[in-house]
């Protein structure tokens, strides 16, 4: 079984649609094996998105991710990483396929409702960033 790190982002928590997103995750066959609602600090958001530190959108991204609570969660499935990326849809919701989370709920390329790890390496780093092994229960 593979694990991936998901974040339900501030645009979704403020609209009170975390349950609707969780239903889409579970309907897609992914299992939520850990979950918590937290408010990221500026330092945590900067560290989490460190790979984007030289991008023009980095400061806006950090400000946005700290603007309201997020729900961080570990999803499990046989191909959890690619299955969840497929369920999320493209970064820009304008190009996302029907039936994806971003097509259904995202407001813009920044306010795009969810994050999902993009490789086994990032999944391992990102799961460990938020959870210890005692918090993950399959
Ligand atoms: P995530 O990492 O959040 O799952 P992603 O892998 O689809 O999304 P990345 O390229 O890793 O996209 O970008 C991280 C996040 O930065 C995006 O989800 C989005 O919120 C924001 N972002 C990416 N590209 C842009 C852009 N061109 N303009 C504004 N914000 C952007
Ligand atoms: Mg990414």
Describe it.
The protein is an alpha+beta fold and 138 residues long. The protein contains seven helices and four strands, in the order βααβααβααβα. Strands 2-3-1-4 form a four-stranded antiparallel beta sheet. The longest helix has 11 residues, at 120-130. The chain is globular. Adenosine-5'-triphosphate binds at residues 52, 57, 61, 91, 109-110, 112, 115-116, 118. Adenosine-5'-triphosphate is lined by residues 52, 57, 61, 91, 109-110, 112, 115-116, 118.
Q: Helicity range of the residues?
A: 25-40%
Strand order of the largest sheet: 2-3-1-4
Question: What ligands does this structure carry?
Answer: adenosine-5'-triphosphate, magnesium ion
Instruction: Report the average pLDDT across residues.
Output: 98
The run of helices and strands is: EHHEHHEHHEH
Overall morphology: globular
Please tell me how large the radius of gyration is: 14 Å
- Major sheet size, sense and barrel closure: 4 strands, antiparallel
Q: Gap between N and C termini, in Å?
A: 10 Å
Q: Which regions are unreliable across 5 or more consecutive residues at pLDDT < 50?
A: none
- Fraction in beta strands: 15-25%
- What class, by secondary structure content? alpha+beta
**Strand runs, count:** 4
Index terms:
138 residues, alpha+beta, 4-stranded antiparallel β-sheet, 7 helices, 19% strand, binds adenosine-5'-triphosphate, binds magnesium ion
Summarize the structure.
With 138 residues, the protein is of the alpha+beta class.
Secondary structure blueprint with pairings:
Elements: E1 2-8, H1 10-14, H2 18-27, E2 31-38, H3 42-48, H4 58-65, E3 70-77, H5 80-88, H6 101-105, E4 114-116, H7 120-130
Antiparallel strand pairs: 1-3, 1-4, 2-3
Bound molecules: adenosine-5'-triphosphate and magnesium ion.
């Amino acid at each position: 079984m593979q694990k991936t790190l998901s974040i339900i982002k501030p645009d979704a928590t403020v609209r009170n649609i975390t349950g609707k997103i969780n239903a889409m995750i579970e309907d897609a066959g992914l299992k939520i094996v850990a979950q918590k609602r937290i408010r990221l600090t500026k330092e945590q958001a900067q560290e989490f998105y460190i790979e984007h530190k030289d991008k023009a959108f980095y400061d806006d991204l950090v400000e946005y991710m700290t603007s309201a609570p997020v729900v961080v969660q570990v999803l499990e499935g046989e191909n959890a990483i690619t299955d969840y990326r497929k369920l999320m849809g493209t970064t820009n919701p304008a190009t996302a396929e029907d039936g994806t989370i971003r097509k259904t709920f995202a407001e813009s390329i920044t306010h795009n409702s969810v994050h999902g790890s993009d490789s086994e390496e990032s999944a391992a780093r990102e799961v460990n960033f938020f959870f210890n092994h005692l918090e993950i229960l399959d």
